[in-house]
Design goal:
The chain is of the alpha+beta class. It has a domain of 126 residues: Cytochrome P460 (Chalcone isomerase), CATH 3.50.70. Helix content is 27%, strand content 23%. It has five helices and seven strands; from the N terminus they run H-E-E-E-H-E-E-E-E-H-H-H. The chain has a five-stranded antiparallel sheet with strand order 2-3-4-5-6. Strands 1-7 form a two-stranded antiparallel sheet. A hairpin with an 8-residue loop joins strand 5 and strand 6. The longest helix has 18 residues. The protein is globular, with a radius of gyration of 23 Å.
């Protein structure tokens, strides 16, 4: 007769062996999701994606709009696209880049100088690469505290700006310090950006 202790021991061994061979469920892929009327659904877990950079009071205009406060811009990208970029130097289809804007705060806790990011998100924009869906492969979607957003019309300045100045595949990789060296080594920098960068280096520094 098999004792109770022996039965429990066998059961424990079986469970241990099963645990070794059963693979954990893979994390769901981060891909663009749309509503029935072609609005982009907000990727709510973007803060768990790969962080690329933060800008401070950046403006692409020679005469930026005057503001009464400073701003931080944080950029995140879905993990699958980040991995592909590190291997190829360019973005795969279904890439999503999230630009998150937060107000810069100066007073708080023990801070005596400089700025830190405030808790409120002041703006959120997603740049999506979906070759089958968009004629220009890429599209912008601006979220204003909503869970879905309509595509920004292609006549908006952001499209031509990215087309003319983007370092890689119409994106501003020139501002992503960990990815720019990869693009250089892979030879994926756009000719327009390389020419623009060379001209900028030739100009005398402002005194």
């Amino acid at each position: 007769m098999i004792s109770k202790a022996t039965t429990l021991l066998v059961a424990a061994i079986v469970m241990s062996v099963s645990a070794v061979f059963v693979k954990p469920a893979a994390a769901p892929a981060s891909v663009p999701e749309y509503t029935s009327d072609d609005q982009l659904k907000l990727p709510e877990n973007y803060r768990q994606w790969v962080y690329l950079t933060t800008g401070f009071d950046m403006s692409y205009s020679a005469n930026p709009m005057a503001m009464d406060h400073h701003m931080f811009d944080n950029v995140f990208v879905n993990p699958e696209s980040y991995k592909a970029f590190t291997e190829t130097g360019t973005w795969p289809d279904k890439t999503m880049l999230v630009l998150e804007v937060r107000k810069a705060e100066g007073k708080g806790s023990i801070n005596q100088a400089g700025n830190f990011q405030g808790g409120e998100v002041m703006g959120l924009e997603v740049h999506v690469k979906d070759e089958a869906k968009f004629a220009g492969k890429w599209a912008f979607f601006g979220f204003d505290g909503t869970k879905t957003a309509k595509m920004t019309p292609t006549g908006a300045a952001c499209y031509s700006c990215h087309q003319d100045h983007g370092a890689v595949d119409t994106t501003f990789v020139q501002f992503y310090p960990t990815l720019l060296p990869i693009a250089k080594s892979k030879g994926t920098l756009s000719s327009g950006y390389q020419k623009e960068s060379a001209n900028a280096q030739q100009k005398p520094a402002d005194r």
